[in-house]
């Protein structure tokens, strides 16, 4: 789990949105019981915001000099709140509630997707199995693999059978009475998902041992 931190999204706000955002933070930081020993006095924080707002209003007429002054004031206020964000990060030490109470926005934890189960069923003939999974949202294809081992290790050499665009696949020509393990990878075209578009890093691995030592036919996984 990543440590929750202050998000510097305020740096990308339009200038007209920065003033109310910064004022709200100044109000929250006035609670000395939560935020003691500010790196900058509260009076200075308010004065810098007032200065920025005055420059913002003066630049409404579009004069080049007024806009230049506004831009300079924006740099000053942004730098001040970057420093305050660093202070909040140190004080909160990952406490999301305290970050939110400061008026800043907290980073979101990455979404962890549960690895779906893989179901293994008897195939239509000896030496065949049918692998089924729940379709994964955003997946455009699935890679199916097996290894002739009951307990695979990092050194195991997996055999890629094929790829499919559906969430099930039949593997044939297996040896009855031998232990196998099966897995699949889902390939997503959505680069914002958990799966990397790189062929070497996009795997969502799910394991399922299907054939039992000494059995003469494949059996459904218990």
Contiguous runs where pLDDT drops below 50 for at least 5 residues: 190-222
Query: SSE order, as H and E?
Result: EHHHHEEEEEEEE
User: What value does the Rg take, in angstroms?
Assistant: 29 Å
The residue fraction in helices comes out at 25-40%
Topology, pairings included?
Layout: E1 6-7, H1 15-29, H2 42-58, H3 64-92, H4 96-101, E2 105-106, E3 118-122, E4 129-133, E5 139-147, E6 159-164, E7 168-171, E8 181-188, E9 208-209
Antiparallel strand pairs: 1-2, 3-4, 4-7, 5-6, 5-8, 8-9
Helix pairs in contact: 1-2, 2-3
What would a concise description of this structure say?
The chain is α+β, with helices and mostly antiparallel strands. Helices cover 30% and strands 19% of the residues.
Account of the protein in words:
Helix content is 30%, strand content 19%. It is of the alpha+beta class. It folds into two domains: 6-106, no CATH class; 118-209, Sandwich (Immunoglobulin-like). A four-stranded antiparallel sheet has the order 6-5-8-9, with no helix packed on it. The protein has a three-stranded antiparallel sheet with strand order 3-4-7, with no helix packed on it. It has a two-stranded antiparallel ribbon with strand order 1-2. The longest helix is centred in the middle third of the chain and has 29 residues, at 64-92.
Comma- or semicolon-separated keywords:
four-stranded antiparallel beta sheet, 4 helices, Immunoglobulin-like, three-stranded antiparallel beta sheet, single chain, 222 residues, alpha+beta
């Amino acid at each position: 789990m990543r440590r929750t931190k202050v998000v510097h999204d305020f740096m990308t706000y339009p200038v007209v949105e920065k003033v109310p955002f910064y004022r709200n933070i100044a109000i929250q930081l006035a609670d000395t019981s939560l935020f003691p020993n500010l790196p900058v006095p509260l009076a200075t924080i308010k004065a810098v915001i007032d200065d920025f707002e005055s420059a913002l209003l003066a630049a409404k007429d579009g004069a080049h000099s007024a806009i230049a002054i506004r831009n300079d004031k924006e740099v000053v206020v942004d730098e001040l709140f970057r420093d305050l964000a660093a202070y909040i990060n140190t004080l909160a030490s990952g406490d999301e509630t305290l970050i939110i109470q400061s008026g800043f926005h907290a980073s979101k934890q990455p979404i962890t997707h549960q690895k779906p189960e893989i179901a293994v069923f008897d195939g239509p003939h000896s030496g065949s199995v049918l692998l089924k999974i729940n379709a994964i949202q955003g997946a455009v294809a699935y890679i199916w693999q097996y290894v002739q081992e009951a307990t695979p290790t990092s050194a195991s050499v997996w055999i890629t059978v094929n790829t499919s665009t559906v969430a099930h696949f039949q593997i044939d020509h297996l040896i009855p009475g031998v232990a196998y393990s099966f897995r699949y990878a889902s390939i997503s075209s959505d680069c914002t998902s958990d799966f990397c578009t790189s062929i070497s890093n996009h795997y969502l691995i799910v394991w399922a041992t299907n054939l039992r030592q000494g059995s003469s036919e494949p059996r459904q996984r218990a």
